[in-house]
Specification:
Elements: H1 16-25, E1 29-32, E2 50-52, E3 55-58, H2 64-76, H3 79-83, H4 93-108, H5 114-125, H6 134-140, H7 143-151
Parallel strand pairs: 1-3
Antiparallel strand pairs: 2-3
Helix pairs in contact: 2-4, 4-5, 4-7
């Protein structure tokens, strides 16, 4: 379902050292693949990131928002689902909203990406929120997602990452 335009930030333009360090704080390994190689564990196919266990697969043409989305899935899923993870992270609608919210917070840790850029890239890819844009949803309609992340101890009351996986 790749709808991203050429303007969407891809891994080849991203701060890979910072991204790798961020993923490793959650026990995830970034596995870079050769151009045009099929991405194992990719839900959407094409250049979209894939998850198998604690490995996140991507190519240099993989959108950064896809890497952060799959990272957020890994963080938000239950330990039982994490053990058997291959391609489909599962979860309910509220968890999916929490994943979208978390990927924006993760982008803040990467100054070269940032939340504003990530929201624009999510819009370009085709994320759909009832208030129209990702930014509008994040700022004005995501209290349920934020509360989910708080209850899961993934963020604190100041919306800062705890660097903990959902327990």
């Amino acid at each position: 379902m790749e709808q991203a335009s050429a303007l969407v930030m891809r891994l080849d333009a991203a701060p890979r050292l910072g991204l790798t360090a961020l993923l490793s704080r959650y026990g995830l390994e970034l596995v870079l693949l050769a151009p045009q190689e099929l991405i194992p564990g990719s839900y959407w196919g094409a250049s979209e990131a894939g998850l198998i266990g604690a490995r996140l697969y991507a190519r240099l043409d993989t959108p950064v928002h896809s890497v952060l989305h799959e990272t957020a899935h890994f963080i938000c899923m239950s330990p039982e689902r994490r053990v058997g993870l291959e391609r489909d992270a599962g979860g309910d609608d509220l968890e999916e909203c929490a994943v979208c919210y978390l990927q924006i917070l993760l982008a803040r840790v990467l100054p070269e990406v940032g939340s504003e850029r990530l929201c624009a890239d999510m819009d370009a890819w085709g994320y759909s929120f009832r208030l129209g844009s990702t930014r509008t949803w994040f700022e004005g309609d995501a209290e349920d997602a934020r509360n989910w992340l708080l209850r899961a101890d993934v963020i604190d009351g100041r919306q800062q990452l705890t660097y903990r996986l959902r327990g």
